[in-house]
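Folded chain entry
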Amino acid sequence: MSLEEFLSYRPPSYKKILHEPSVDLEWNIVDAYNLIEHVLCILLSVEKNNRYAKLNYFLEKKETYLALHEELDKLMDKHNLRKDQGRYTFLENVDEVYGDQTLLHYWDHLEHADKLVARDNAWRNILLYEEY
């Protein structure tokens, strides 16, 4: 199954939703793109900081995430979903935002990225936008 087919799939439990399936596709592409962008930034932080050594397992998958990012990049352009958004700037001050929960926050995002790579619909259960 192609990435676009996977992202346009609406599980049976979602059949009662009133908006068009194309809206799901748009939301899913943008959410997947944002997740992978977030994960790539997290991996940069993991590479720089030894205290996240528990996450080194995910560094081995960096090439997979980069390939998925390229694929999502093409989908973003194909469906004209680009919006002028700032890049992630949280890397330098990440501990101020998440405190002791940084490792857990990183782990959660990386696990969801793995689910996206594996085409597991559970990847959608991540909360990307939190209010502080």
